[in-house]
PTS sorbitol transporter subunit IIC (Oceanobacillus sojae), 180 residues
Amino acid sequence: MDFMIMIAEGFIGMFEAGAEVFMGYMTGIIPLLVTLITAVNAITKMIGEEKINGFIQKITKYAVLRYTLVPFIAVFFFTNPMCYTVGRFLPEKYKPAFYDSAVSFVHPITGLFPHANSAELFVWLGVATGYTAAGGSQAQLGLMFLLTGLIVILMRGLVTERISAYMFKKQGHEKILKEN
């Protein structure tokens, strides 16, 4: 009989734990995302989508800026996961590579700008604690992490752009490659 009670309690406990996680989302990340999305859309409307498109089009003509500055701005100002919405201002042919760069940058920025990806702060603090215990400077580690991240996202962006171009051609979507 005790065994059956234990199974029943475990079964309902699993759903109670799921409900707690769900409520955490409902009171935490979902309102934050709704607020951020609303703010970004409002700012976009105030500035004008044409002006934002024009600015992004100008700076994305240069691959170095496209895969360093644009992801940096996106992650710094919009944080993770809202930063990916900046990709909507890029031509289709650059969107996969932008996403790859942005998603690869949400961790390296945390060392100097923890607001950008606060969910991963515990990982950064664990690494930084070990580094400082070994005699290193946390500020130096954060700067090295950021600079290395910028180099890595540039390389990833360039590689993903080439892979995307190959895939677009292979699947008969050459018109995407002829945009801007």
Observations:
- The chain has two domains: 1-47, 48-178.
- The mean pLDDT is 86.
